[in-house]
Structure to design on (459 residues):
């Protein structure tokens, strides 16, 4: 965060000061919407959620060192009161961005955004000061909070941009106009809110490249026809990445590297270099190609990019996060969220990691699949059987039960169980897991199976 006085911030966001003794007091640290994450010199943004009202924690934030609270009503401590805190954060972020002028890189896609963002950040950090989205803070609150972590020394600003509805990316790119826009893929995530099918999702994701300037770069996945269909929506220079021979940045000679990992030869216009991923799953190659495409248009050479990818490690929890227990059990926590695409990729990655070891899948519902939800869950059940999993625990009623039924019907070799909730999953999995097993845990975030993964990892 660049230093700004409370008076300056009030002018930018149109706030009315309440209980502010010193308008010249400096905010020198980033903003936070969680009072537990406030640092001395920061600004606490009091937002109202479904279960928690941040205004109730204004005093806690001040005690932690906040200079003031950005609020929608007076809170009895120094506050800048605005009509809408979320809108005010966006205005403040846009103002700060205009003053510091980093290269803004926006990335979106149905799956793989966070992993790609983490890989790209680790490549760019070796080259220059970089600020990237924390975890998956990619919405109307998370994006401005990321911008406000940047300062005058920041050269690259890597912004994961989520889109749950049409118009979301238009709003986010209005706060942080990107010079580089990366679209990973078009899948079935959020189909319930975006429309009837992939064309509707592509229309929403394409808002990112439509926002790019003529001297910018639109990085498009050459292997996804819906992404390539966005080419006509941008004025920017188009650079393709992927496995396609037409891709300027691509992976060649893709091969297993043991323990579920993958190696390949990175090919860019500036040369070739070997890469061996630390992350499990061949699908991670796509994230590496995408990160490499961004680094390429920013001027890094192939060997620099490959060195960054080889050194990169998983940064965000709940995404194929591996925990090895003392009894030889390996827990693969992929429970942050789930779509059919990420479920298939995760199941394959964990099964490859297991090799000859016994494999266990603990699966819950994939949300926001609209009227095709049941069919997509049964497809996953069939895949569990086809991949040769030994044990399946389906968690929840409705679609997970259909998933379990399809797995049982597809193979007699998989032992299938169904439980009602996360507590039941923990109890049953704890009883059935054997030393040496590989346990894969995944569901949409609202199911809460991350608690199961953590319980099994700590057992």
């Amino acid at each position: 965060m660049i230093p700004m006085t409370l008076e300056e911030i009030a002018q930018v966001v149109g706030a009315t000061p309440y209980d502010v003794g010193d308008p010249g007091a400096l905010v020198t640290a980033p903003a936070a919407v969680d009072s537990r994450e406030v640092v001395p010199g920061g600004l606490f943004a009091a937002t109202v959620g479904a279960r928690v009202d941040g205004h109730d924690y204004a005093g806690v934030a001040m005690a932690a060192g906040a200079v003031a609270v950005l609020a929608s009503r007076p809170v009895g401590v120094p506050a800048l009161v605005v009509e809408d805190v979320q809108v005010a954060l966006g205005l403040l972020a846009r103002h700060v961005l205009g003053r510091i002028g980093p290269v803004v890189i926006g990335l979106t896609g149905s799956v793989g955004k966070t992993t790609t963002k983490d890989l790209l950040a680790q490549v760019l950090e070796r080259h220059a000061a970089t600020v990237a989205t924390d975890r998956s803070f990619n919405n109307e609150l998370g994006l401005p909070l990321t911008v406000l972590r940047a300062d005058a020394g920041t050269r690259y600003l890597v912004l994961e941009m989520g889109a749950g509805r049409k118009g979301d990316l238009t709003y986010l790119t209005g706060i942080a106009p990107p010079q580089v826009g990366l679209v990973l893929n078009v899948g079935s995530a959020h189909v319930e809110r975006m429309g009837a099918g992939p064309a509707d999702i592509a229309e929403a994701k394409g808002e990112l490249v439509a926002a790019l300037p003529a001297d910018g770069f639109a990085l498009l996945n050459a292997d996804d026809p819906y992404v390539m269909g966005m080419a006509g929506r941008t004025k920017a220079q188009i650079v393709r990445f992927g496995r396609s021979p037409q891709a300027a940045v691509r992976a060649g000679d893709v091969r297993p590297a043991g323990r579920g990992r993958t190696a390949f030869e990175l090919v860019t216009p500036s040369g070739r270099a070997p890469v061996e991923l630390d992350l499990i799953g061949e699908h991670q190659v796509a994230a590496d190609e995408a990160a490499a495409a961004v680094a390429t248009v920013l001027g890094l050479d192939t060997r620099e990019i490959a060195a960054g990818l080889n050194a990169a490690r998983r940064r965000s929890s709940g995404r194929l996060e591996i925990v090895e227990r003392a009894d030889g059990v390996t827990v693969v926590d992929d429970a942050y969220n789930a779509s059919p695409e990420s479920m298939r990729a995760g199941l394959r990655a964990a099964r490859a990691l297991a090799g000859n070891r016994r494999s266990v899948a603990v699966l819950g519902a994939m949300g926001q699949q609209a009227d095709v939800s049941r069919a997509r869950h049964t497809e996953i059940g069939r895949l569990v059987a086809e991949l040769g999993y030994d044990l399946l625990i389906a968690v929840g009623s409705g679609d997970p039960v259909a998933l379990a039924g399809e797995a049982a019907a597809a193979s007699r070799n998989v032992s299938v169980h169904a439980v009602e909730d996360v507590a039941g999953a923990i109890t049953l999995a704890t009883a059935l897991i054997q030393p040496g097993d590989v346990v894969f845990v995944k569901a949409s975030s609202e199911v809460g199976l991350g608690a199961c993964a953590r319980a099994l990892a700590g057992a």
